[in-house]
Design goal:
heterodimer; A: mainly alpha; 8 helices; 0% strand; B: mainly alpha; Helix Hairpins; 3 helices
Chain lengths: 178, 100
């Protein structure tokens, strides 16, 4: 229960950070914290495979794609970075003014997330449980795989076609017009 | 063991925050991120109910939703890039081609 409260607090603060940040790049990084917290919640829900896929697909692929696009487009909000690069413009100000709220919030959330995950691993609360959830297969790779490749074979194949179409569509759309 | 209700409440809060982001923000990229957040909130609901009923179908559905989300982000960001290159702005107010 304690871990759930901590993780949900981090998730809500990170979600608020996504919609309150002035710059898209901070939003993307807060989104990463949100996704990581959801992965921890999946582990608490006995869905270990989903947690790993969440980190790989959302944290590894989708957020990185967002970061690429934010950096390609710039969003027209990069003027502060140019100011910061000017020598002496930033270093003369005290530390409390240099750190704006997204940085402080991100630092706090990161420390909290690491502490909560460490606490969960240390006390064994994030380990797979025994008992009635064992009949559930604990969301393990074996249980998911046996269902995915028997009952859900057709949707699985259709998902691969969907990904192929998505890839082709992205290539066609992102190409500059002749 | 955390009650399933709490997960559903958390999911509802995250979904509401995402919807607020879609409604309130003007930057098209942040709107897109908020949509992703809403999708994640719904995934959390599926996982919580899968544990509640001790059935794996909910988790399979989350996997499918993740595949759809990956394809959607790839195509959506390509569309955003094409539109921003055309309009030279990430403000959603400038994208009013379909306005009657």
């Amino acid at each position: 229960m304690f871990l759930f409260i901590i993780f949900s607090l981090i998730a809500i603060v990170a979600a608020a950070g996504v919609i309150l940040s002035r710059r898209p790049i901070y939003s993307a990084l807060f989104l990463l914290v949100n996704f990581a917290t959801l992965a921890a919640l999946y582990i608490m829900l006995q869905a270990q495979f989903l947690a790993v896929v969440q980190v790989i697909v959302y944290g590894g692929a989708i957020v990185v794609l967002f970061l690429f696009v934010v950096m390609l487009l710039g969003g027209g909000e990069l003027t502060d970075i140019r100011d910061a690069r000017r020598p002496g413009a930033d270093a003369s100000r005290p530390l409390s003014q240099r750190l704006r709220w997204p940085q402080i919030a991100a630092l706090g959330l990161a420390v909290l997330l690491l502490a909560a995950v460490g606490y969960g691993l240390f006390t064994g609360q994030l380990n797979p449980v025994q008992g009635d959830a064992a009949t559930f297969g604990q969301g393990s790779v074996q249980a998911i795989g046996s269902v995915l490749y028997t009952d859900y074979l057709l949707p699985f194949e259709l998902a691969s076609i969907l990904l192929l179409v998505g890839m082709i569509g992205a290539v066609v759309l992102a190409r500059p017009a002749e | 063991m955390v009650p399933t209700t709490y997960y559903l409440i958390l999911s509802a809060v995250l979904f509401t925050l995402g919807a607020l982001g879609v409604v309130l923000r003007r930057n098209v990229l942040i709107i897109f991120m908020s949509v992703e957040m809403m999708l994640n909130a719904v995934n959390l609901t599926f996982a919580a109910l899968a544990r509640h009923f001790l059935q794996l179908h909910g988790q399979i559905f989350v996997l499918m939703a993740m595949a759809v989300a990956a394809a959607e982000v790839a195509v959506g960001l390509a569309i955003v890039m094409a539109v921003v290159r055309h309009k030279d702005s990430t403000n959603i107010q400038d994208m009013n081609l379909l306005k009657g």
